[in-house]
Amino acid sequence: MKRFTLPLFIVLLNFFANGQSASELVEQANQLLTDGKDYPAAISKFTQALQSANLNAEDKLRTEYGLADAKLRESQVQVNKLGGKDVAAIYREYIYESVDHLDYARKNIEDKPGLKNSVEIKINSLEKLLTRNIMQLIQEHQKRTGSEKSRTSKEILKACTSVQKLNPDNYSAWDYQGQVQLTNLDSAVALASLQKAVKLYETGVMPGPDAYAGYMYYRVALLQNNYQKDLQAAQSTLQNGLKVIAADREKVVSDTELKQIRKDMILPNLDAVESKIDLFLVDLLIRNGAETEEQKMLIQETVAKYPDNVSLMFQYAKMVSEDDPETAVKVYDMIIAKEPTNSAALYNAGVLHFNLAANIGSAGD
């Protein structure tokens, strides 16, 4: 005699359904969801319907959407109960499962504009919720160590994959994914994720400007230089990043509808990432030898742009000391004026002063 091989939970679900049709189960679940607000019971009914042998295409569509709705609502109830603290794993899974339910619903809606609109609203809401959660997890990830860091890393990557399923054009999800992959030392996949984020941001599918988008260019250039050993690609990425920042700054300044308080928040962040990219770019040029006049001019302009950056000034003085010792002396003197006890600047300036004096003396002879 052939033995049954169905999983026990499916047998039990069909047993407790008491012969009800899938349509009846879906109707009962929707009533529990909207009228009784008994989300766990609604989830149970929808699950029974999903396992029903007589589930037709329309009922499956309603069931998938209903499960997403019920699981999201129950997750929110649990979050509210805990005052925003971390919820149990089952409710986090509910959120990720809702992504699959909604993805199915979106792909199988044909002539139901009302339901289609509801699904899109849910998808947009869930995308924002997951993106906010990723931002919080990123902050936790930076503080964690050992197994806890590994756990949050997996959680972030899972959340990023879910957001990408909901909206493949969400550049933030690709950026966050790349950040975690970078901390995990997965350089190749991190670079691919970050380059995807940059490309999506440049196409402007999602509204900008983003005050932190420039960091994507910084991270891509970092990997191109350190992992791929491609200096030219890194320089090109950084220069593109500076162009994007300049364009974003112009958008913020000229946006008459954007409140001044928002502008005061965005502009300093744009300045900060611009500074980071400027200094990285010049550091690459100096360490690898600025060969063209354009590169040398860029370095001079950057040094002038950041007159309080002693480290940058010192690098520049060392770079020009052989070809232009007079300029190098002037820069070292500026450093000494800011830091009178800077021994390296004092020594290098002294050597240059001595050599210049010796050259003048020999020229007089």
Structural description of this entry:
- Helices cover 79% and strands 0% of the residues.
- It has helices spanning 8-16, 22-36, 39-50, 57-81, 89-108, 113-143, 146-166, 171-183, 187-203, 214-226, 231-254, 260-287, 293-305, 310-320, 325-338, 343-364.
- The termini are far apart.
- Residues 1-11 have low confidence and may be disordered.
Overview in brief:
The chain is mainly α and 365 residues long.
Mean pLDDT: 85
Round the Cα radius of gyration to an integer and report it.
30 Å
SSE arrangement, N to C: HHHHHHHHHHHHHHHH
Helical content class? over 70%
Strand content: under 5%
- In DSSP terms (H or I, runs of 4 or more residues), the helix count works out at 16
Q: Pairing-aware structural class of the strands and helices?
A: mainly alpha
Major pleated sheet: none
Shape: elongated
Number of DSSP strands? 0
The parts where pLDDT drops under 50 for at least 5 residues are: 1-11
Distance between the termini: 116 Å
Task: List its traits.
single chain, 365 residues, 16 helices, elongated
Helix-strand blueprint:
Blueprint: H1 8-16, H2 22-36, H3 39-50, H4 57-81, H5 89-108, H6 113-143, H7 146-166, H8 171-183, H9 187-203, H10 214-226, H11 231-254, H12 260-287, H13 293-305, H14 310-320, H15 325-338, H16 343-364
Helix pairs in contact: 2-3, 2-4, 3-4, 4-5, 5-6, 5-7, 6-7, 6-8, 7-8, 8-9, 9-10, 10-11, 10-12, 11-12, 12-13, 12-14, 14-15, 15-16
